[in-house]
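Risk register update: the risk of archive-format incompatibility is retired. Evidence:
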Amino acid sequence: MIIGFSLPPSDQIVSSMLATELNENATIIPVDYGDAVVSNLERIFPAERIVTDDAGLRDSAVPKWVATRANHTH
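Archived output:
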């Protein structure tokens, strides 16, 4: 999961690290204030690996993730 980081196109170091080091079967769950993170992630990963339920929710993104997913990600 990626919490609160929109993965801007200018951050090539983090993009490269995620693209090369993240397990190729990992599901990506962006938890973010804005929804730009989804299109930024789609530059690196196939859309079917990205779960968008918790992106673009403004101030409720993190509280919603905690309430619905935090205990289910272990």
